[in-house]
Amino acid sequence: MELFRRLGVADKLRAAGVPASEPLDVVWATSGSGSILHRFAYAAPDAAREAARVRNDGTDTLEPAMRVSQIVLEPVLKKLVDANPLVDVRFGWAYEAFEQDAEGVTATIRNGGTGETASIRALYLAGCDGGGSRVRRDAGIDLEGMHAIGEAYMVHFRSTDHQALAKFGIAYHLQTAHGTLIAQNGHDIWTLQTLAPPDSDPDELLRNFMGRSFDYEILVANPWTPHMVVANRLRNGRIFLAGDAAHQVIPTGGYGMNTGIGDAVDLGWKLAAAVKGWGGEALLESYEVERLAIARRNREAAQRHLEVRLAIINLFMEAQAEGDLEGAEASERRLELGRRIAELGNAENESWGIEHGYRYRSPVICPDGPEPALDPMRAAPTTFPGSRLPSLHLADGRPLFDLLGPEFTLIATGQANIGGFEAAAAAAGVPATVVRLDREPVLDLLERPLLLVRPDQHVAWRGVAAPDDWASILATVTGRAGEADRREKAA
């Protein structure tokens, strides 16, 4: 959501999501109509935003989380893209094949309705065409990991039977041994995700989950196969992969779309830099280095979360083996089951280090001393190069992130002298903004008086004083360091 804010569309997306006044609670129960076992309570986005402003310690995000269904989000994004004069949208056309050469890529596309084909010539091609990516296939890129790790079933339905569906109050996820019920819009659209064979009866799945009959209308019901795979490469020449084409993980943690958005932002600004002429080959190479590491880390996190879910299901089975979990006589067993669920925790919804504390390591990042440890549960504020800039509010209430320029930004605090930065950036053709900030206590969290921040809000370089040679720093962070040597070798 911070990245969407940078694009100026966060408010438009929130208007389509679940109201920000609703909490993000996760509830475990014996069944949808049974007894509550444990509630992991999480503040509503509105409350989380205010708490982050008051806390102001760099551990939070400027934008709180947003609950939204993909089928609601995508039309909003499409409308934004349709209205953008710089984007040529061709719905109904599908990618067929590509050919690349030293100067660019030629892609063949086909109209699904008429069969008409057309060619598109471009400098680069980004394959964002999903798990079954034809671009990935044609680029000769393989997937590594575990395929078909289980049999899953989704039931997407409409219901206003809140007496049945909201027995335990407002919750984002209601979870039982029979699956997870997701409240998609806080009113009448719901999704049940469960482990079940492909020939399952969706009506039976709903009844088993709820433990009773209720009124509903099924909108979509289908089996699906979860994978835990990551591409072994994200690039072949002028061809790049992003999103599900590059990685597929189970939804424990919600890392699929979120990782894909991170891919798009990282690849987007680097392609823009290359097209505009100020980004070098090493900058394009860094996309694979940076995003593959994050995709693998997120896959491992999703696997850990799945193992916790399976452990909880085993606890259910053990408790049910001793008898029915409902009724007064089972109260002690329910209490014990709830205690053990609480003990296992809910890292799936609390891994802030995974979600916004991740750090890039690549040739376009300038390291600075010993690297601090990464904690998957906590996004400790740091400006160690490669890290996301901590979100802070200044004394006058302004969010630091809102002061960043559209490309590179040099933050200078207190009396820090920036030396010849502006002249060096102009000479190199690197678009850069300088943000000068008066000294105030909260800025101690930035750790250094000089920070060079990338367009994706990650720190590329930091220092206590301006370097003697800004040109070499800018050459490194834009991927142009050593380009003359490479050209000489190529010649």
UniProtKB/TrEMBL annotation:
Manganese among keywords: no
- SUPFAM superfamilies per UniProt: FAD/NAD(P)-binding domain (SSF51905)
**UniProt key word Nucleotide-binding:** no
Output one GO MF annotation: oxidoreductase activity, acting on paired donors, with incorporation or reduction of molecular oxygen, NAD(P)H as one donor, and incorporation of one atom of oxygen
What the entry lists under Gene3D superfamilies is as follows: 3.40.30.120, D-Amino Acid Oxidase, subunit A, domain 2, FAD/NAD(P)-binding domain
**First and last residue of the signal peptide:** none
Annotated ranges, domain FAD-binding: 1-298
Q: Name one Pfam family in it.
A: FAD_binding_3
Q: Which UniProt keywords apply?
A: FAD, Flavoprotein, Monooxygenase, Oxidoreductase
Q: Which domain of life is it from?
A: Bacteria
Xref: InterPro entries: FAD-bd, FAD/NAD-bd_sf, RIFMO-like
Q: Which NCBIfam families match?
A: PRK06126.1 (NF004780)
PANTHER family, per this entry?
A: FAD-BINDING DOMAIN-CONTAINING PROTEIN-RELATED, TRK SYSTEM POTASSIUM UPTAKE PROTEIN
**Protein name, as recorded:** Putative FAD-monooxygenase
- Naturally occurring in which organism (per UniProt): Sphingobium indicum (strain DSM 16413 / CCM 7287 / MTCC 6362 / UT26 / NBRC 101211 / UT26S)
